[in-house]
Design a protein that fits this description.
Radius of gyration: 33 Å
Number of helices: 3
Length: 112
């Protein structure tokens, strides 16, 4: 019984892997197929394709540079949850420490 289940599981795994391999091989062959399906590639057409690729690479590079330079301006300024001032958070807020010290002294006074 166990062997039958293992064989069934292995068959499904093999079929899944075959589908994945088929998809990968299709992607790898895509560029070659495109060139084969076109009739003839003249020198001018080849230059145009290369120029198009170069322009695409340049645009992608400029876009990456714009994103990286804009990334610095998109950084969120950190504000304190206690005092509301920028540059620190509630854990390291001096006012929060002062408030907690004064509230502790108030509690001591109220208890005594």
């Amino acid at each position: 019984m166990v062997v039958i289940y293992e064989v069934a599981l292995l068959r499904t795994e093999v079929s899944i892997l075959r589908k994945v391999n088929k998809g990968l091989s299709k992607r790898r062959k895509t560029k070659k197929t495109r060139i084969r399906l076109k009739r003839s590639l003249t020198i001018q057409n080849a230059r145009d394709l290369l120029d198009g690729k170069a322009v695409g690479k340049q645009l992608a590079q400029e876009e990456r540079q714009n994103r990286s330079s804009a990334g610095g301006s998109r950084t969120k300024i950190q504000y304190c949850g206690v005092c509301g001032k920028p540059g620190h958070n509630a854990r390291i807020c001096k006012e929060a420490a002062e408030l907690s010290d004064s509230s502790i002294s108030n509690l001591v006074i109220a208890i005594s």
